[in-house]
Amino acid sequence: MSDGAPPLVLEEVRGPSAVGGGRRRFFDLLLLVSVTEFKKSFYGTALGYVWSLVRPLLTFAVLLVVFTKIIRLGSEVEFYPVLLLFNVVVFGFFQEATGAAVNSVLAQEGIVRKTQFPRLVIPMASVLVAFFTLTLNLIVVVIFLLAYGVPAMWTWLLFPVILALMIVLTSGISLMLSALNVRFRDVAIIWSVISMVLLYGTPVIYPFEIVPPGLIHDVLAINPLTLIFAQAHVWIIDPNAEGALAVAGGWWQMLPAAAIFVTTCVGGAWVFRREAPRIAELL
Amino acid sequence: MSPPTDQATTQGRAATDRSAGPVVIEARGIDKTFQLPINKVNSLKEQITTFHRGEYKRLEALRDVSFDIHRGEFFGIVGRNGSGKSTLLKVLASIYAADAGRVRMAGRLAPFIELGVGFNQELTARENVELNGVMMGLERREARSRLGAVLEFAELEEFVDMKLKNYSSGMLVRLAFSVMIQSDAEILLIDEVLAVGDASFQQKCADVFHEIRDSDRTVILVTHDMGAVEHYCHRAMLLHDGSVRAVGEPGDIARKYLRLNFQQAPGRSDPLDPESEIADVIINDVWIESGGQRVTSLERGEDLRLCAKLEAKRDVEGPQVGFVFTNIDGVDVAGFGIPENLPERLRAGDRLRISAAIGNRFLPGRYVVKCWVHRNLNLADLVLYSPHVLDFVVFGRDGAGVVFLDQDVEVEIDRGSA
N or C: which end of chain B has fewer CB within 10 A? Predict the structure, then answer.
């Protein structure tokens, strides 16, 4: 043990925190926990990873039949099936991540209460696991994109911007939910309702163009997700669709959505940071 | 084995040696209070409706706790249930945040609040060892390189790629223990778990702890087992109601702990002073004899005599002395008390010489002798308790059980003609 008597430096023990024990350890743990969780969700299943593709494809197929054959909503939208698939996959990421994050800290109770563990790893692992699924699903989206003959555009290169915005927003919400759910177990239930409301409050299964002007239009336009999805529509599928700017109706009108976006992300991080040292006691 | 009969002296010396070393953990004025809701509020509605009613009970788990631990020390923390031991451990391990005070530490600390925390049943031993290592603060590469040593100690090399859910419970604790013992953190924080598994694995655990005790690694051990405290620790600390009652030589701390325990026991006549520095009775010498010679090991069935010299440091009314033999599994195999021949009262300065011939029915193995002295003919009124005054080994032919019996067997055979 004593290799030349290393100098002993007493360092302050700062107690539990969101990111304790250095950046390196944080990322090591985050990756390890996420990969483990990702693999775990398919253990004992015959088809394994295939399921992560089948699930959104099935949702997509059902929605496609409903909205093109029963409710003829998609007929006047160009490349509606591709748009639908893209939206389902991206929104699925948001739903999967936040849905898992809300219960993540409770589910990892043993680790939180009995080990030194950077708390932030836990909700962020939920986001990363959902991101792994998203990556797999995007491969299918690309195949559909090409198969439906959507013309290649340079704006496809801007997809990382969409992705980054989605990841930041999803992370912010995940942090807030996971921390609050320790104090109030209602949060998980409330979130499942809100999450469903957001599915319809965001142009996921319908293009924003068909929303008539009025109160509902204005309410939807301050939802940051609406702007992100509208912009993705323009960049990825149809350059003539209404982008974020058109949906909001001007740069100034984008401010409320931007404010909500920033507040949610900063607020989520702030709540988590504040709660992190006490999570072990509250469980 | 361990011929020293005056453990206090030997351990005292070890303690001074280590106390001279550099401080690796410095705790100053740690306070921790829990707000315990009388009815646990877990929903928003409850929170709103019970808002300003102050339905909380304050529990002061730790009050102004300060201590230093030096490099290489095996430091015991003892105390009754609810004395704040676990809270202190969790504060040291950065699981809880202290309300006041500060802790400073030199080196990496690995906490083992429970064996196998974070083990994932669906993963193989290989994956779990890596995950656990990273959780304890290693880099992935280091965690992977540790795998061999962990599995070797756990004797589970063949099962490296088996999922933990297919492990037996014995294999699981062995793996968990091995992960703990093979952790290369400079400071180990251990709650209770000292030995697991079957007898031979337990012996291995004990050996490792002896090794660690003599190494430069620092160990903080929280336990109820006073035998372990005396056996392993260089120094110990007694917590009571969240405050430090005493820090010092393990034997002394063990005795204070037991007094504190028995103080609250029913049937106590007068309050004992748990702070007392002097034991009422001390053991000057204790040994075993076989064939008229002092020995540390003897053969199965050989004659056995337990001898002890005690000295009263204060007057003791109605003294009683007892000895118990414990085997390696921690089972009290046999014991005896010596009330009859003792005087009604021991005066300060009185010396007792005890010599007890014992029918040696011990099966081969290692045995530890505990010694108790009570007063007022009351078992709860303890003046001396020493959980490890002596150990010895019995060798020879093995047998079933914990002791052998003298038996006189007759067999009759009645075979009907075919």
Answer: C
